[in-house]
Amino acid sequence: MMVLVLVALVAGASAEWAVRRLACEIEPTVGTVGDCGCEFEDVDSATHEFFGPILRNLTQRKFFQYFQVDLDKACPFWDIEGMCQREACAVDTTTEAPESWVEEDEARRAWAVERTTSVSWVEEGGEEVWIEQGPDMAYIDLLRNPEKFTGYDGDGIWSAIYRENCFQDTEVPATDMLLNAYRRVVRKEGQCLERRIFYRLISGLQSSISTHIAKSEFDWKFLLRENGWLQGLRTLALGRPFANDPVFVARVGAHKERLHNLYFAYLFLLRAATRAKDDLVSYDYDTGNPEDDAMTRELVRILVEDDGCVARHAFDDSMLFKPPEDARMSPLEKALARESVEDLRAEFLGRFRNISKIMDCVTCERCRLWGKLQILGIGTALKILMMEGDAAGLGALQRNEVVALVNTLAQLAKSVDSVHHYWQRRDLKRGLAQWALLLSPLLLLFLTFQSTLKKRNNKIL
């Protein structure tokens, strides 16, 4: 009986601790997403009910299944000591890419052999486009190689990305107060709009990847080795979804800025996809499978069509990389404004190209694959929004860009949905803990009564 009483006391103490701990966790984000005109609640609803299911279906289609990439490039910034040897880090290179794609690539390579060039970035359709090319480019099946927890520590890579791509805090010379007033309008917290967006996109991508890691199934051997048997047994006892919640809270959930940036990156790419509606709807999605290709075209149409959903227009790109237009500006002032915007645009592109090269320093092959894909996805979104309304036109979207854009958008949607599900699980755990806290005194009282009654009966006998 004493053992049962002790169990009741422990259960009560554990329930009280759980309630206090859950009460200290960050509350769900409410209000408007920073730099966007959309409520978090509206984004959650639109993603869960509309965009999430469509994107999950779309990324299962053959066209979006294959991404072309060179995973064997040497790191251009520092020496690396070999690649990760864990099975989870490896990429399955077995692929059945559409035959027409392979033939097209072979024809392009044959044509390239006749040209002598040392340019590593092939630019087609304008200077704002970059497609990495090389003789070792290969198609990777994304469904066979999903983004997941591999045990790889990418802190050094993220530090390099933030450190090496920090904008210089300098002002472009301007001689007119009107131009300076324009700069003040688009500034917030000391950063111009475009530079703030650059940081938020990278931070949002990191938050998304961290959310995927927290959601994915852990490598149990790695978990036991790194955290010991106690943590491993606790994880087994609680079950994977709940057990990974502390990882999400530590890396993303407890950081309001990271949550905002995750939602911002998602809305940014959603806006880009909507802007490129005509190009995406009319794109050639031929893979040699008529039925699957027809479904792809229909899903893309549904994804980008303008049905009034506020999430599609949450990010206002009207001021992005646009020089000020005012009748009071002299021709010189207008020229200075255009030059300033073009310099910033070129700096943006250079930094995203630099990040893609940093991805070649990732020693986890699977992490490198998804890092390069999602950086290209964000770069493609920037290309779309930068060229929208430009006199030179958008230029042709390349196949790899379309694949990267949709898959990156799908990954961000998955992360946003995971955040929503986390709050639901947190509320469930809080409710269970409160019930346990309420029932534990009753259990203790019942056990005490049973013990007293048993002693009394023994005396009577």
TrEMBL record:
Q: So where's the catalytic machinery, residue-wise? A: C364, C367
- SUPFAM superfamilies the record matches: ERO1-like
Disulphide bonds in the chain: C84-C89, C364-C367
Q: Write down the required cofactor(s).
A: FAD
Q: Which InterPro entries match?
A: Ero1, ERO1-like_sf
Extract one GO BP annotation from the record.
protein folding in endoplasmic reticulum
The protein's topology relative to the membrane is: Peripheral membrane protein
Q: What is its main location?
A: endoplasmic reticulum
The entry's FAD-binding residues are T150, W158, S203, R251
Superkingdom is Eukaryota
Q: How does it assemble?
A: May function both as a monomer and a homodimer.
Q: Which family does it belong to?
A: Belongs to the EROs family.
- What is this protein identified as? Uncharacterized protein
Q: Which organism is it from?
A: Chrysophaeum taylorii
